[in-house]
Structure formats: structure tokens, C-alpha cells
Amino acid sequence: MHNSAASQFLAPTIPVEFVFDALQACPARGADVTQLLTQAGLAHVQPLTPGNRVSVVDYSRLLRLIIQQLDDSFLGFLDRPVPQKAFAVFATQLVACTNAAQAITQLNRFYKLFSDQFHLEVLEHTEHTVIRLHLRQTQLFDYRFIHQSLLIVVLRLIHWLIGEVIQPEAVHFTFAKNHLHPHLYYLFGGPLHYASPYNELHFARGVLQVPCATTQAQVEVMVRDSQRMMLINHRPAPFTHAVRKLLLLHCQREWLSAEQVANELNLSANLLWRKLKREETRFQDIRDALKRDLSLSLLTNEQLTLSDIAARVGFAEASSFHKAFSKWTGFAPSNYRRGKPGPLQGTAE
């Protein structure tokens, strides 16, 4: 696998449910969901297929298409559209902000020009600071996507302003916990709480007062990379990321064991296990997720047999691969291939 292709697999693919969460408001705004999926190269994706995945690149393309078609950077979730270029205009105002607290105040002022349907409230407690999202729901569609997205925007904005990835002490969602928890944990990087009274980010007290200095040139770079910045955690749980990276680097020759990975990281196997447990994962889960993502990509190559693919992802027999793939995705590999989904970016070679 070439380095450029391998790098595409450092970030996990995205659960298909995120695709349909992003499309929730489109029918109410007159957009053709089938057409949007087709234009994004996701015509094969079905809403009731948990376990199916899409690449970050394909998902980003879909978000851009929705925003362009609706001319709304909030993808139709607010009653009034917010122009596509609004975020770029808001970002230029960050140059005058000396800390993240001022940036949040400015965000509220700026977006109130377009909508009074949402705002952020900052609550200072003795030990921690809370950023609470207030969003008035006026339609019958599911608002989960916009709740998650706005909290991600705020979190990434704080990271960018202070020049450091700050893990929140807690993230609270009003919706119930579901099987998407691992991907949400990857995005937010902190303890997640569900069925809470409010959608909130919790930080150590003082984070919003950390001094920051931003230039216009830095703003332009941030705006250019803003969508990808929201979809990828550039410094997720560090040991999870390190394990995935080591597995990816060695997988063409062999699939490393937990002991081999621990040795590469200068840790004992027990210490690695404990560190991964703190990041709410296990070595086997990380390895399975990488094998799944590589398999999804390899299955789009019609020249490879199922036995070829099984061997490439570390299975001695096609039957074992079939069983594992069905467990990961809910599909038999042959059925997934017959669906002829478009190739993931960075197809494994």
C-alpha cells in the first residue's frame, strides 16, 4: 500500500447513519435526497443497513452538495437559511478576538443576523466551564445531526484558536445512546453522556480565557480546511491512533499482535490494554475496524477474489473472512460487492 493510500485509512470511515442524519431536513426544504446521494456517489447507500460505512471524502462531498443545493450552511435544519459563505465572513472577525470566550460571544452576535433559533450559553462553575447549546426545534425531523455538528464546530474552533487540542471533560447529548457511540467518541475525544437535559461541552475552568492571537492568513487556511477539520479528529485518543497507525504500516507484511504493538510502543501488553481501556476501546476492536475499512475498499476491486481479499486482511480462509465481514457490517462480502458501491478514497493496493 502506497503511503498516500495508507494515509487515507488513518481516519476511520463514517457510519452510514451519519449520511441520513445529514439529509434529515432536505425533503422539508424541497431537495431530492435520491439525486443528492447519486451526485455524491452514494446511490448504493440504504438507510436501514447499519454497519455500512462511507469514506470521509464521499461524506464531505455529500455535505457540500447539500449546502450548495439549499444555499444553506446549516443544511436546512434552521427555519431560515444561512448563506454558504457566512462562516468565512464570521471567521474574519476572529482576528479581533483575544480568547475563545470572545469568539463565542462574536459567534452568537454574528449568527443572530440570520437566525434567532440557536445560541450558545457559557456557564462558569467553580471547577469547570460549560458551553450549552440552545436550539429551538420547530420541525418533525430529527435534529441530532445539527446538535452534534454545532458542538463539533465549537470544539474545533476552540482547538484552533488556542493552538492546542483540549479534550473536553465531558460531552452531553439530549438524545439516547446508540451503536454510533464509538464514532462520536472518536470525534469528540472525551467522556460522552446521553439522554441529558442539554447538549453541552464541559471544560476545565479557564480554557475559554487562554490568550490567543490570530492572523488573517491563518483564518484563510482554517476556512479552506474547515469541513475536513469538523469530520476528523487530528489528535484522537492517542493510543488508539498509535495502534491503528502501526497496524496499517505493517499490515502488508503481517498483522501485528497486541504484544508486538506494545513492544513497538515501548509498553508492556498489560499497560497498553489499560491505556486503551481508558480510551474506551480494545486492541481487537481497533484491528477489526481497520480490517473492515480495508475490506470495504478492496471489495470494490472486481479483479480480486474473496480469497485474495481474505488473505490481504489477515484471514487464512475465505470462510473466516465471510463470517467476520458479516459481523462487522451486516452484509455477506459477496452481497456487499453486488451492491457495487463506489470505491472508498485511498483504495488499498
TrEMBL record:
It holds the Pfam family HTH_18. Signal peptide: none annotated. GO terms for molecular function: DNA-binding transcription factor activity; transcription cis-regulatory region binding. Residues 241-339 form the HTH araC/xylS-type domain. SUPFAM superfamilies: Homeodomain-like. Keywords: DNA-binding, Transcription, Transcription regulation. InterPro entries: AraC-type_N, Homeodomain-like_sf, HTH_AraC, Tscrpt_reg_AraC-type_HTH. SMART domains: HTH_ARAC. GO terms for cellular component: cytosol. PROSITE patterns: HTH_ARAC_FAMILY_2 (PS01124). It comes from the Bacteria. This is AraC-type DNA-binding protein. It comes from Atopomonas hussainii.
